[in-house]
Amino acid sequence: MTGQDWTPAEPDAWVRDVNAGRVPLLAEEYGRPLDVADLLGEARATTGLDDFGDFDFGAPGGFEEPLRILVDSMEAEGRLNVLGRYEIRQQILRLLQVRLHIARYLRDDPGVLDEPVDAPLFVTGAPRTGTSILHALLAQDPANRVPESWEFLRPVPPPQPGGVDESGADDPRIPVVNRELRLTAMIAPGFDAMHERGARMPKECISAQAIAFLSEDFPGKFRVPSYAAWLASCDMRPAYRAHKVVLQILQRRYPAGRRWVLKAPPHLGTLDALLDTYPDARVAVTHRDPLKVLGSLASLLATIHATHSDAVDAPELARTQVDFYAGVLNRYTALRRSDRVPAETFHDSHYADFLTDPIGTVGALYERFGRELTDEAKDAMSAYLAGRPRGKHGAHTYQLSDFRLDAAALRKEFADYSAYFAVPEEGGAA
Fold first, then answer.
1. What is the spatial distance between Cα 270 and Cα 265, in angstroms, rounded to a whole number?
2. Within a 10 A sphere around the Cβ of 70, how many other Cβ atoms?
3. pLDDT tens across 187-203, in order?
């Protein structure tokens, strides 16, 4: 480790053997540098397809520019171990394969681009503010259409009504996606207590945006500061255009009527691009004490990064997140103070209120946006909560001091945001 107080949980022996090069075939296969030309060629060879498409509609430099910047940053700055190289290589190959399949699908059925995506609801807010549980609750309403992980990671061909989306019938993509998503939990003991992932669980929009190689998914898992800085300066509309194409494909075989409910914390920093792509969108924003957010987030990301690298600088990672979300939350505060976007576009809620009355919090959201929360939906949400009590996978423990963060300095840095949205301070260790 480099310059950190936090230390990861001890991985299993097989993980140590792989990363130490004691599994020669894996070390040889995944120890070599990433190369964009090789990755493009392998994706073409494994699919038998050649056209990667332009469905993100005019991204500067196409998708290959962000891909090259990502790969260069990964090689120069990623500090990757063998498993890290394996995971990023497999992720990039999957994304390239998906691009090829989407381009083929659009050639075969160009009418998919005329599919309307009407009034989607986006859940966002800083990470660790309850966005995931709120999204999962909204998924229990039969009137809502929430993408499952396997759908965002491998959207072609789209699911059929009465198929896996409604009946739970098997699709061969589900176990493939589940293996990919469960790898971190296999390597990092206790990861499920922080953030459970699986193929049949709701998935964040950053996975669909990653098809354009413009996504916070990459900095969330790997140390790529040059890519992250470049991404922060980008026009994110191409990422949202790719995201919309995925939604259009997924809804192609479904009758009209179900409403998309989507989620990702990074949406809060790219609302202009979101609302340009989805002008009738509604945005539900969750709020929580920034000290709790940053301590929990630093712990989560350090654990994820430690599965991919043997040299995680946890304080550096934590400071990066402080700077990023200070900018995001201050921009959102400024946006809400202005009249640039109609106030009725947004609904704000507090994590503390959700813990006290989750169904009531959902009810207020529905009322804000003129939607009906039926008794059937309430019962389904209550049953979901009953089956997933807090701490089901163990406790997630952390301290700000683990990441050399100072509580008083953070209070000052986030004071304007906290005051404007009346965010209550939380007791206990931050």
1. 10
2. 28
3. 555 544 554 667 888 99
Tell me the CA end-to-end span of the chain in Å, nearest whole number: 23
Any bridge partners for residue 124, and if so which?
A: 285
State mean pLDDT over 26-44. Answer: 85
Query: In what helix (H) or strand (E) does residue 380 lie, and over which residues does it extend?
Result: helix 375-386
Tokens 């193929």 locate to: 199
Which pLDDT does position 393 carry in this prediction? 42
- Inter-residue contact 162 to 138 (CB < 8 Å): no
Which bin fits 84, alpha (ψ -120 to 50), beta or left (φ > 0)? alpha
Compute the residue count for the chain. 430
pTM of the prediction? 0.89
Rounded to whole angstroms, the Cα distance separating 363 from 361 reads: 5
The three-state (H, E, C) secondary structure of 132-181, written as one string: HHHHHHHCCCCCEECCEHHHHHCCCCCCCCCCHHHHCCCCCHHHHHHHHH
Residue 121 CA to residue 263 CA, distance in Å, equals 8
> Could you tell me the sign of the dihedral formed by the alpha carbons of 205, 282, 343, 375, in that order?
negative
Residues 91, 314: Cα–Cα separation, whole Å: 24
Using pLDDT thresholds of 50, 70 and 90, give the confidence band for residue 10.
low
Helix axes 64-77, 225-232, angle to 10 degrees: 140
Q: What tokens does 425 get?
A: 């301070």
Strands 259-263 and 144-145: parallel
For 202-216, how does the pLDDT look when each residue is reduced to its tens digit (9 = 90+)? Answer: 999 999 999 999 999
Please provide the DSSP assignment of 207-258 as one string: HHHGGGT--THHHHHS--HHHHHHHHTS--HHHHHHHHHHHHHHTTTSPTTP
CA distances from 399 to 130, 193, 296, 391, 415 (A): 19, 16, 8, 18, 20
Q: Which two tokens stand for residue 370?
A: 């003129």
Partnered with residue 348 across adjacent β-strands are 285
Q: How many CA atoms lie less than 13 Å away from 105 in the CB half-sphere? A: 20
| Spacing of C-alpha 259 from chain mean position | 20
Q: What is the C-alpha to C-alpha distance for residues 173 and 155, in angstroms, rounded to an integer?
A: 9
Strands 259-263, 346-350: pairing is unpaired
Q: What is the SS3 assignment for 259-301?
A: EEEEECHHHHHCHHHHHHHCCCCEEEEEECCHHHHHHHHHHHH
The H-or-E segment that residue 347 falls in is strand 346-350
